[in-house]
Amino acid sequence: MPVISSRKPYRIGRSRTGLGLFATKPIKKGTKIIRYSGPMLDCRKKKDDAVENKYLFQINGRWTIDGSVRKNIARYINHACKPNAESDVNTRKRTVHIRAIKDIQPGEEINYDYGTEYFKEYLKPIGCKCDACEKKREKLRAEARAAKSGAAKKSAAARKSGAAKSGATKSGATRRAKAVTAARARGTKAAPATRGTKAVTGTAKGRAKTRAAGNGTRAAANPRKAGKTAKRGRNGL
Ligand SMILES: [Zn+2]
């Protein structure tokens, strides 16, 4: 693992889905945390355009950062749908910084939103593992359980009152509906992402579409055909 100076306010650590970047010191809202760095690829050059990996960060229609290099610690930052940081793209300087959009406490994982295109391409098909999405799934599961046990109670009550009316035996009335356990996780079906969705050229407000999976996504995306994943947003391919 790359060595990180102890002066830095972050460290690499275990996250839900693999590795991630975690705050080791309080980070104030608005602070530039780290630069997303790597060789600059020019999509007009054949050789550059042929580069395929999951750490490509699109600056604009032409330029993309290849963030797969080891020294790019920012590549460890995972995606979150409700993140505490954002990617701040300076198209003129062709730089990307990850900036805190909330106060971040020591121990908290640092996340930013990889953007809609990336989400659709890589995360949605396998189910996003970020906190917000996990919570949403948990809520849906709880609701499904509640709905099922509610329905079970209702039918038990109906049987009971029916039994009472018809003067049925006590044992009939005390019969209980078994609560059914529940509900598979939603949205985790491993449908392969469709290729050839139109790539975006030009970026919406600092959110490069190509951005690379952090480790969480990398782990999740591994089962898919390696190497042939669509290179997002580079040049309209
Ligand atoms: Zn999510």
In summary, what is this structure?
The protein contains five helices and ten strands.
Write up what this structure looks like.
It is a single chain. By secondary structure, the chain is an alpha+beta fold. The chain has two domains: about 10-125 and about 195-220, SET domain (Beta-clip-like); about 130-175, no CATH class. It is built from five helices and ten strands. The chain has helices spanning about 45-50, 115-125, 130-165, 170-175, 215-220; strands at about 10-15, 20-25, 30-35, 40, 55-60, 65, 80, 85-90, 95-100, 110. The strands form four sheets. A three-stranded antiparallel sheet has the order 3-9-8, with no helix packed on it. A three-stranded antiparallel sheet has the order 4-6-5. The longest helix has about 35 residues, at about 130-165. It is elongated, with a radius of gyration of 24 Å. The protein starts with 9 loop residues before the first strand and ends in a 16-residue tail after the last helix. The relative contact order is 0.20. The model is unreliable at about 165-210 and about 210-235 (pLDDT under 50). Bound molecules: zinc ion (ZN). Zinc ion binds near residues 128 and 130.
